[in-house]
Fold this protein.
Amino acid sequence: MPGATKKWHLTGKLVILQIMQRRSKPELVQAVCSQRCAYYKSGRNEELACQGYIVLERLATTKGIPLARNNDERPRDGAGEELLMQALCVTCPFHEKDCDFMENRALPPCGGFLLLMQLLAAKDLSIDDVKKNLPEK
């Protein structure tokens, strides 16, 4: 890919290929939804997107984001989850009625939330990056 800057990172068992360029929608859907989201149904209402996906899409077009090849196998971080929930979930269109994770924290969060948690834990993003890329209300 001409003009792409590639960097390899090893984070635990996870190898990340970072390409600092614009991500395509199918690539993001694959990395965020298909690979990580227990709630995503391919081909069904593809216009719907969680707030995590929306933030990741904005980050991909402005700063570039590393997309993990596999799910990170680290245990969930309660303190990190709480910060991300305060920044991201309260503004999510699914928050009020359709978010199983908000109703029961034992259930998995959406794919956007999971990938953002991985990127925050790996220090590839900050919570300020997330906040700056939230859609305007």
